[in-house]
Amino acid sequence: MTNSIVSWRNTAVILFISLVINIYGHNSPVSNLVHSYVNVACFKLGLPPLLKHQSAVPLAASAADHNSQIKQYLKSLNAAPLTNEQALEYCPLVPALAPEGYETPYAYFGNPQFREFALKTLKGAVDIPTESFDGSGPVGEDPVWDIFYKFEKYLKEAFPAVHEHLELEHANTHGLVYTWKGKDASLKPVLLAAHQDVVPVLPETRELWTHDPYDSYFDGEVLWGRGTADDKSPLIGILQAIEYILTKEPGYVPNRTIVAAFGFDEESGGNHGARYIGKLLLDKYGPNSFEAIVDEGGQGVHEYQGVKVAIPGVTEKGSVTQKISINTGGGHSSMPPDHTAIGMIAALVKEIEDNPFAPELTTDYNPFFKFLKCIAARSPELDDNIRQVVFRADQGDPVALALVTKYLLKNRLTKYSIQTSQALDIINGGLKANALPEDVSAVINFRVSVDSSVAQTKQKLLGNTQTIAATYGLGVVINETLADGTFALTEVVPKTKKGYFTLSDYKEPFEPAKVSATEGSTWEAYAGSIRHVYQTFAGPIINPAKPPADFSTVKNDLVVVAPGLMTGNTDTKHYWDLTENIYRFSPMRLLNMQISNIHTVNEHLNLDLHLETIVFYYTYIKNIQ
Ligand SMILES: [Zn+2]
Question: What is d(CA 342, CA 429) in angstroms, rounded to the nearest whole number?
Fold first, then answer.
């Protein structure tokens, strides 16, 4: 946290400890212990290290010196680096899990007839423009939702066996909940989730599409159209896997109930769809009643630092979106005050951006660290010194942890796994070139780190606001939305004649999701299915002309399953009460750029990837029994 009050209290404590140690010497056991913590704290607060220690390395060198700093630190420890074999213990593999008798269906999934069926059904789904928009009215009033009647009708035609054998319930009209009743009522059901809606195609971008987004085009390898990847391939993949089992394996009944649930406004928050589905399932089954929930997300299967890795998201960052308004008197612009409302909000914006959130990497909670350990343990490319500090950080060495943290901060792709992000997205103010602006506002979006909270995030923004309010002699008011929808105003700093800032929720905030289990049988069935599909199986569908005679002889590169952290959100935020095991992973291989352009022009998907998606759901349904 860099909120002024908290950081100054911390700073004072650190200064005091530093003073004591600098006076009483560095070599007592206590000071050695404290020393590391103080310097790590300094680093977190963006201060130079206050304590010098004969064996320690200062942490505040420039980014360019970072690698040599790590090297120096490791040298100063005088400890032997871990061997490659020892390193592997930091990333144990979940055994690949093959469903019984998988050879026959797997061979069938590759044959031309099934490819044809898979393509036809996916294309049919893509061609229905199930767009969802922010700010739509209620279902039944706003005609925007009517397209989902057509989509449901289509699913009924495309998957007759599913609709014959599974029970279908509706949540808020268009939320589809399919139940495939298992034999054993004592087993918790599994929920396979996906969403029917797609991001709208903006009218002004329609011409930029090579092929009509809703008259999708298959070029022999790739299907082009809106929603091919996000999220119709998983949705159709789930139904295709079940349809296959029902038609080709007659008499098969799962032990465990399988529920498939499809929301219809995930792209605009899930408040019309997933929220109602979550409620329906909670009423029907009760809290913590599901074995696991599998939804879209994660980062697919791709190569990172030379390691082929599947990264299911086991948590999501939280979200806070606040509106900052400033109220000041207006007037003619020929006699302005030194700072207009726009100038003062600009100062606040600068204060916010100049004080980013402190990074925090908990080695035992943030799943990103587990991912990092896997890369460190198995990457042939990662710098050996970085690998060694990762292992040391895991052993509880705070200096190593600070060095790892700093390494991650260098890259935008990794830094927000350990830090709350802040983005000023909207600014409004001023109406006329000769009139002082009266009401000026800005909207800021925070994605809350898994190690932080909504309250800490708001506290940091309040701290920044108080600093700038003090500079300009303004008040500060918090406008809080209460559970019953009413508002409560709190004057944190009294309003003045000059005006005041108001902070209010622009969107409903939510906490980071709980971190799901990455050990135990639920995880093993899930991660083992991924490894089996993407490692053992990998090739045959890519080359359907030559399915192997014996699947056990197929040897492919190692695929590691490592937990990840999602910086975005999915429908699963409406399902938190149903289970502790939520896995967000769109089963797709992202190697060689076979999939791209999600949410933008020319979205497309390689048909082979879609077939693998079907194979994944088939495998998981069988393995979770
Ligand atoms: Zn999606």
Answer: 7
Comparing CA positions, the residue from 527, 543, 545, 544 lying closest to residue 587 is: 527
Nearest to 262 by CA among 159, 137, 182: 159
Three-state SS at 145: helix
Average pLDDT of each block of 10 consecutive residues along the chain (625 residues)?
36 40 36 39 39 39 74 91 92 93 83 91 98 94 97 98 98 98 97 96 90 94 92 97 96 96 95 97 98 91 88 95 92 87 96 96 94 95 94 96 94 91 94 89 96 97 98 96 88 95 94 95 96 76 58 72 90 96 90 64 89 94 95
195 CA distance to ligand 1 middle (Å): 7
| Residue 571 alpha carbon to ligand 1 centre in Å | 9
Is residue 435 included in any domain, yes or no?
yes
Check 152, 230, 231, 266 and give the catalytic one.
266
Is 52 in the same domain as 124?
Answer: no
Answer whether 479's CB lies under 8 Å from 504's CB.
yes
> Are 35 and 132 members of one domain?
no
Find the catalytic residue in 197, 397, 571, 608: 197
| Phi, psi angle pair for 185, to nearest 5° | -70, -15
Q: Measure the CA dihedral 348/351/354/356, to 10°.
A: -90
Cα-to-centroid distance, 125 and ligand 1 (Å): 15
User: Quick one: 289 and 328 in the same domain?
Assistant: no
155 and 209 part of one domain: yes
338 in catalytic set: no
For residue 137, the CA-to-ligand 1 centroid distance in Å is: 21
Q: Are 344 and 474 in contact (CB under 8 A)?
A: yes
Encoded tokens for 326: 């400033």
Residue 278 CA neighbour count, 13 Å, CB half? 20
Are 554 and 539 contacting, i.e. CB atoms less than 8 angstroms apart? yes
- Residue 62: predicted pLDDT: 60
Cis peptide before 231 (omega within 30 of 0): yes
Secondary structure (3-state) at 284: helix
C-alpha 504 – ligand 1 centre gap (Å): 28
Phi and psi, residue 213, nearest 5°:
-60, -25
Ligand 1 centre to CA of 130 (Å) is: 12
pTM, full prediction: 0.84
Rounded to whole angstroms, the Cα distance separating 343 from 350 reads 11
197 is catalytic: yes
Please check whether residues 328 and 227 belong to one and the same domain: no
